[in-house]
Structures are given as C-alpha cells and as structure tokens.
Amino acid sequence: MSAFNKTINFGLALLLNLAFASTLFASEWDHARLQLEQPQTITVYRDANCQCCHKWIEHLEIHQFEVIDIISNDMSKIKEKLGVSNMMASCHTAVVNDYVIEGHVPADDIKQLLLDKPAHIKGLSVPQMPVGTPGMEMGLRKDHFIVFSFDDDTQYQLFNAYQTNAENNYLPLNHAE
C-alpha cells in the first residue's frame, strides 16, 4: 500500500471516529419531552463576548424556537426594564410570548410554560450559571439546579428542579409527559 493510500485510509478512519465520538457526546438536552404545534419566536438579549449564551441559543433552535439574537452592551438595563431582579439574574435574558426567560432555562420548561399559559407567571429563571445546564455543559460535572417562576411582585416559586441519577443524567422533578 502506498504512502498516499495509507494517509487517505488514516484520514477516513479519523473522520469516522470523530463522527462516532460526536454522537456519543451530543447533549442530553437535545432530546425533547414536549413538542409545540409550531415554532415559536424568542428574542434573546446577550453580551457579544458570552459563549454560553450562543450555546443556549443553539439549544433553543434544536427545540423549535426561531431565535432573534440581539447583542447588548447594557444587559443590566434590559433586565431592569423586563423586571428581572438581581436574585434571579444570569447572563442572558429572553422574551417569548410576553414571558421573560432568564438564564439557562431548559427548552422543555419554556415549552411547558407556553403550553400551560399561566397568567400569574411573568417568567422563568435559572439564576447564576449552573454547570451542566443547556449551554453550560462542561464534561461530566453537572450541578443540581432549580428553574424558578417569578411574577410582577418578585415572588418566586419552584417551576422545576433537576438532579442527576446514578448514570449522571439529569432527571426533572416535574416531568410532564
């Protein structure tokens, strides 16, 4: 076998291994529990330098959301205008059907909000930036986290909570089927 053929064979083997490995490491957040009747438009406000925001946007796009991506140099002003308190704050803020979505909220929780249409809820938030949430995946580390709902009076309630099982996969507390 010539050196050229060996190089081609090595290159093809490498590509196949990379393709196989990428399927092994796809995000567990890619699987959807809920389906919407039609895609929903969501406007995401984010800082230009934040990479996790872009990853969260990709997560939304996988889950039937058409994203309007707006870069802002003053995220605190946007959060204040939309009524996101400092306690609920994270890196990016979004609006979908008049609901505010703050931080790395899983798409299925946003879909549940849109399907239920609760009048008393202003929005959902995953405060801070827990590792393992959509867009914040970093290897095997996965923090337990809570999705809070909040209202106009800055009252907060548990909307959903996630913890990992023995296989290190997230399990939602409020699993709607």
Provide a short characterization of the protein structure.
By secondary structure, the chain is an alpha+beta fold.
Could you describe the 3D structure shown?
The chain is an alpha+beta fold. The protein has 2 domains: 1-30; 31-172, Glutaredoxin. The chain is built from 4 helices and 8 strands. The protein has helices at residues 3-24, 51-62, 75-82, 107-116; strands at 40-46, 65-71, 93-96, 99-103, 123-126, 145-150, 156-164, 170-172. It has an 8-stranded mixed beta sheet with strand order 2-1-3-4-5-6-7-8, with helices on both faces. Strand 7 (156-164) and strand 8 form a beta hairpin. The radius of gyration is 19 Å and the shape is globular. The relative contact order is 0.14.
Features:
single chain; 177 residues; alpha+beta; Glutaredoxin; 8-stranded mixed beta sheet; 4 helices; 8 strands
Give the CATH topology of the largest domain: Glutaredoxin
- Tally of separate helices: 4
What structural category characterises the helix and strand content? alpha+beta
Rg estimate, integer Å: 19 Å
Biggest sheet layout: 8 strands, mixed
Which consecutive residue ranges, at least 5 long each, have pLDDT under 50?
A: 9-25
What is the CATH architecture assignment of the largest domain?
Answer: 3-Layer(aba) Sandwich
State the helicity in percent bands. 25-40%
Mean pLDDT: 85
How much beta, percentage-wise? 25-35%
* Total DSSP E strands: 8
> Largest sheet, order of strands side by side?
2-1-3-4-5-6-7-8
Give the overall silhouette.
Answer: globular
CATH class of the largest domain: Alpha Beta
Overall number of domains: 2
The N- to C-terminal Cα distance equals: 56 Å
What's the helix-strand series?
Answer: HEHEHEEHEEEE
